Amino acid sequence: MVMRALCRFPGDPVLRQKAKRVSSIDGSIQRLIDDMVETMQQTNGVGLAAPQVGVPLRVVVLQMPGEEPVAIINPEIVKRAGKREVTEGCLSIAGYAGEINRSVSVTVKGWDRQGKPTRVKATGLMAQTLEHELDHLNGVLYIDHLESQDKLHKVEAGTGEM
Ligand code: NI
Fold this sequence. Notes:
By secondary structure, the protein is an alpha+beta fold. The chain is 19% helix and 30% strand.
């Protein structure tokens, strides 16, 4: 597993592109997943989307505190419920955090790292992270959801970014 360089907003246009569906699982996709997990762990993140390491494919990884990493390929949100205000930071926008609204729970379907259909139902931080990473696949960043610039502040680079 190799740590990959993180793309940063606003310098890297890949962060604003719509990522492409993965058509089939092969060794390069599994290597990408392994490298994304390594990169997420080295940066103390809770989630990472492939465009954040410069790969415009629909692949995300997540790791909730104390749990094993999860990869989802070609993820789609099939259900969302509730709304709550959260504080969010992105590994690609270092040194900032903002308050935005996210769903309380989401259901996501996609493929696991072997290409088998998978369905994940999540609440709280995991639901927030899934929405954040799926936004990345569509070129959307959390700052796009800010109601005003007052909701964005500078923070020390930390943990729990996504
Ligand atoms: Ni992010």
